[in-house]
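$ fold --in a.seq
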Amino acid sequence: MIILVINCGSSSIKYQLLDMKSDDVYVLMAKGIVEKIGLPMGSLTHTPGDKPKVIIEEPITDHKEGMQLLLDQLVHPQHGVLKSFDDIEAVGHRIVQGADYFSGSAIIDEDVIEKIGVCSDFAPLHNPAHILGIRAMRHVLPSVPQVAVFDTAFHQTMPAYNYTYGLPYKYLEDYKVRKYGAHGTSHQYVAGQAAKLAGIDINHSKIITCHLGNGSSITAVKDGKCLDTSMGFTPLAGMIMGTRCGSIDPNIVTYIMKKDNLSPDEMTTLMNKKSGFLGVSGVSSDVRELNAAVDQGNERARLVFKILTHDIIKLIGSYIAELDGVDLIVFTAGIGENNARLRRRVCENFNYMGLKFDFDANATGHDDRIISAPDSKVKVAVISTNEELVIARDTMHLVLGSEE
């Protein structure tokens, strides 16, 4: 089954076209990523099977433009991999927020789209982008089944004491105000892959997974199930991120609103789209541009990395306490996989846990690998996340099941 997997992030669209033979036997026909959506200059990197990589740089205003750009590459006369869109048998979408409407993946219909829209209040940067992707796909491929795979599903195992806020209980009952988390598909995948790589039985394990990108979250995984996670009611909570402030004193919200006479929507925009790396540095939300600024002596850009590093350290430390120890720490996603200096600075703070770092393994290589020393009591791994494979598996099972 040829499946197109769409993974819309807050400023990016990752995609893979897979020919799925079974859960573990598949051919990756093409993959790519649209990046820097909404910034002055965007880019698309398209890798069509064994053909040369294609890089396109042009302004990409929004996710709709990005979606059209990637679709054009799949059927391009020179570097496409499909004769026509008719070759695509199913489309799987990563959806950040499904609240308690969805305990698992679902075949998309208008009811599902409506509920994803309702959940946009909980994921304002993502769910609207997901709906754009779904609508675009339905326009191009009206007869092709589409499946929604929800990031929140993996976090449904959190106990009530971790997902319930200290607000009047009516807000949980009436308005579904609780912790939901995000990046669940990624956390689930990398925990499993890292456990295999480290020789750890995931069903008897204490793992902390760090998904670090433009949006970031950290999850405590006990015996293969989510115990706690850093994102909350929305993906705004937790550590500092690309344009999101992370967790702050709630009274700051009303204080700034009164001072600057902001509406609730304006304050939401400020916290979600004008804060984080961008807000503190005044330079960019993109780590690569911040690194360049640091090299030029920009102290506010340097401050961003210090805040990020210590946010990660504090979250890992709290989850070590919650798990009563840790067997394995995993780094993944754009920053987690590519920033060796950040990984080193984080891990140096856990020597007291018996963590011994392998500096050479950390600094070299781009594959999945262990970056702790052989005699380290705590293993550390770098794993390339593959949310797309998880989404493709769920899509295949649901579509084939619906045809039986």
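$ fold --in b.seq
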Amino acid sequence: MLPALAELYGVTADDILAGETLRGRPAETEGPARRRLLLLRLRTRFDICFAGAVALGILAWFRVEYVSLAAWPVSVGLLWIGYVLAAHPARYGDVTLDTGTWENLYRKLLAASALQWWTLLRLVRIGDLVIDDAGMRLYYAGDTWKPLIFAVGLAVLCAILEWALRRRAGKVASLLWVPERLRLSLRQGDGFLRRTRQIWLVWLMWVAVLVGLWFLAENQLDLALAPWIMEYGEELIRDGLPESWIVLRERLEADVAPWKWLQAGVLAAGGISAAVLAVWTGIAWKKRRPPLAEQGET
């Protein structure tokens, strides 16, 4: 059985008889079994820290007194401790992570970081405290900007992690899921890769900013309608005040007009910018393959 065991663990029969362990052996003499074991350990380390970070992030999301303020920094620290435990041996140790493993790691980083980013925005207060006597509630004036801030921050986070992933795993790696049959086409040229990433990052930022502005306008519109609903009822306000209430109708329209104009402006800007981006995307995709002469093909 010694030859079979030696082949399984990537050693020689003499090593087994001599009692030599795998620990401390040079990387180039180790077999695939040790590499699989090291990869499993690295993934397990990160996955445990990732699960703990997500659980703590969800706990902090509920804004429990005192608990959330302690859970959020622990969540962030645990996530990046897991990243260091997985990435440091891969960069300076005796194991090499493939592209798929790096992509999986960075996608989990993005998911956990997005949760932590939104949790942080829920914990902080933006603007001055507003006391709504009619609605019998307290809120902060700047909290309605949080969706836009989250969207822009998420787009920046995606760009940073995409750049870091390419540095670690090569130019073919991407946070987006890419079918294996398209991996070879991605290696055809740096220009194609660069344009592809530019396209999806620009579209991502466009969606993030547009959605953030829309939610900002909608939240401000709800705040403007809140005192009217408390006084006259939601059904009457949503359906429209009677035409005979001229003064009240004018006051209501003056209160909600800026945010309705903002919603209309977001829709108009979204349509125009989408058309411009579609044209730009088409031009960029036409340039995705360099001429045959530049590739050295015949």
